[in-house]
Specification:
- The complex is a heterodimer.
- Chain A is of the alpha/beta class.
- Chain A is 34% helix and 27% strand.
- Chain A contains ten helices and 14 strands.
- Chain A has helices spanning 46-54, 75-80, 97-107, 114-123, 139-151, 169-184, 196-202, 220-226, 264-276, 291-301, and strands at residues 8-17, 20-30, 35-39, 61-66, 69-70, 82-85, 157-161, 188-192, 205-210, 213-219, 230-236, 249-251, 257-261, 281-287.
- Chain B has one domain.
- Helices cover 75% and strands 0% of the residues of chain B.
- Classes of the chains: A alpha/beta, B mainly alpha.
Chain lengths: 302, 251
């Protein structure tokens, strides 16, 4: 992996809009084949960062390189290597689906690309709508058309800016199946999303942005370890618990007890004390920390 | 297909899909002008000896339609793309600023020429057919559409809202075309307004274009060619510089 060119390399990116410092020295590297998540609250700089990668925005300083091509100096190569699905649901009402994809493919200088266009339409369930004017597509189909437009030139790197915002469950699932397949086939995926469970399930690595800075960057499984807040849900055969534990155990409306702990040894001690008190554990469920806990924690501290 | 030809094709397809609005409507408008003005003035005015008023008016109307439609094509396409957000589809691919410019320009020229041909075609019934200088016709026709096509790109990039573009059209393009001698010879004007007209580049376009049709003009067609060419070069240079810098397109 280390010998290959990184899919995306950015170093020291700064961008200011009037009084807002949108990006404040962002550096990160994404290797080929990664499924990478870019998270952060609104205004953190996610869209600015990917707009710089796509050449829609120009950085005040720093560099952005895609598959070894600088986005300013070698913009032709870098844009060929990148497929971007914009956040806004935009469509050109003058054309139908096939025309839209044919024209988009032409912008990349591709001739006789009909085979691939058909394949992309097939995988995104657009084939039966090929001759429909884009105005007559439903919101979900418009979103799929945007994905198809980003893929017409078979880019090795695909950037998705909030692709599932306002998308129904079925489409979200089929979209992720398709994107995951592209990732398995070797495409590098960079994703921004507000749905943290999606990022947790899909992304191998995650960067978190806040006020234009990277405040966390690690493998998803390592990030999940950052928070050591675990929770055990216990059902006991007794209505009372030993005095020393009373403050740390909370009673839930269904009668079970909730125990938040950071070290597993705490749980061990609790169970031992319960045994001494002759209280039996009827049922126990452990809840693993999720990305939302980590995210909230990191954003609070950063 | 190169990026340029794809964008050029898209721009042609765009206006061709609404051909009634983009070609037929301006032809009808020009025809109405011709009917009204020639009905009112035919018997009263002979601008050049031996040239009927209708024959005088036709080249002016053809040119005016070409100017307005070449401008409308590039400017409205750009402002629509910007307002709807579809401009992103041409900003993401590896198109150079020159390809971008030439594609919008080419489509604007073609729309201008198609409308011009249409207007000319329907007016043939009303004016005597003559064409002493077809070379000038071609030179002025192309240059006029190119100037307005480039100006349309400039306005389309600059305008952030439809009303800004409408202001550009109503307070700049329309007065320049109407006050350029479409309907009259500037020799009929008082000396001051004659001098003002000479500062209007559109006057040279209409005057030179009319020379191709009737063999008479208010100024030397070579001078007009020089002015028009200089205008085209200047507008294109500014537009290309803006496109290159990403002005209002890439932030």
């Amino acid at each position: 992996m280390s010998q290959t060119i990184p899919a995306i390399h950015v170093s020291g990116l700064c961008k200011r809009f009037h009084t807002t410092q949108a990006l404040d020295g962002v550096s990160l590297e994404i290797q080929q084949g990664e499924f990478f998540g870019l998270l952060g609250p609104n205004g953190a700089g996610k869209t600015t960062l990917i707009s710089i990668l796509a050449g829609l925005t120009r950085a005040d300083s720093g560099h952005a390189v895609i598959m070894g091509h600088d986005v300013v100096r070698d913009y032709r190569q870098s844009r060929r290597a990148l497929g971007m699905v914009p956040q806004e649901l935009v469509y050109d009402p003058f054309f139908n689906v096939r025309e839209t994809l044919h024209i988009q493919s032409g912008y990349f200088g591709l001739k006789r690309n009909e085979g691939w266009i058909d394949e992309v339409m097939h995988h995104l369930d657009l084939t039966q709508h090929a001759d429909k004017n884009t105005q007559r597509l439903s919101g979900g189909m418009k979103r799929r058309l945007l994905v198809a437009q980003a893929l017409v030139h078979k880019p090795p790197v695909i950037v998705l800016d909030e692709p599932t915002a306002g998308v129904d469950v079925d489409l979200r699932r089929s979209l992720w199946e398709f994107i995951s397949r592209l990732n398995r086939e070797g495409h590098t995926i960079l994703l921004t999303t507000h749905y943290l469970e999606e990022a947790q399930a899909l992304c191998g690595r995650i960067a978190m942005l806040k006020s234009g800075r990277v405040v966390a960057l690690d493998a998803t499984r390592n990030l999940l370890k950052l928070t050591n807040e675990h929770c055990a849900q216990l059902r006991l055969d007794s209505e009372v618990v030993p005095d020393v534990w009373q403050k740390r155990l909370q009673r839930d409306p269904d009668g079970s007890w909730r125990f938040n702990f950071s070290e597993y040894s705490d749980l061990e001690t609790l169970l031992a004390d319960l045994r001494v008190a002759d209280t039996r554990v009827l049922e126990m469920r452990l809840q693993e920390p999720d990305l939302e806990d980590v995210f909230t924690d990191i954003m609070r501290r950063a | 297909m190169s990026g340029f030809s794809a964008l050029f094709y898209k721009e042609l397809l765009r206006f061709w899909k609404v051909v009634v609005q983009t070609v037929v409507a301006p032809v009808v408008t020009a025809l109405l002008y011709l009917l009204i003005f020639s009905h009112v003035l035919e018997a009263h005015i002979e601008v050049y000896p031996g040239v009927s008023y209708s024959s005088f008016l036709v080249p002016g109307l053809v040119m005016m339609s070409m100017l307005q439609n070449a401008f409308a094509n590039s400017s409205s396409s750009l402002i629509q793309s910007k307002m709807q957000g579809t401009i992103v589809f041409v900003l993401l691919p590896p198109l150079s600023y020159l390809e971008f410019f030439l594609a919008y320009l080419g489509a604007a020229i073609l729309r201008g020429l198609v409308v011009g041909l249409g207007v000319w075609g329907v007016t043939l019934w009303f004016a005597t057919w003559q064409m002493p200088h077809p070379g000038w016709l071609l030179a002025y026709g192309l240059l006029a559409c190119a100037i307005m096509g480039a100006l349309g790109i400039l306005a389309g990039i600059w305008a952030e809202k439809y009303d800004q573009l409408a202001a550009f059209q109503n307070f700049l393009i329309l007065p320049l075309t109407f006050l350029s001698g479409v309907f009259y010879s500037i020799h009929s004007l008082p000396p001051f307004w004659q001098a003002v007209s000479h500062a209007n580049p559109v006057f040279y376009l209409i005057d030179g274009f009319r020379y191709a049709f009737v063999g008479h003009s208010d100024s030397d067609p070579w001078l007009g060619l020089l002015v028009a060419s200089a205008c085209f070069v200047a507008i294109s240079a500014v537009t290309l510089a803006l496109l290159r810098s990403g002005y209002k397109l890439r932030h």
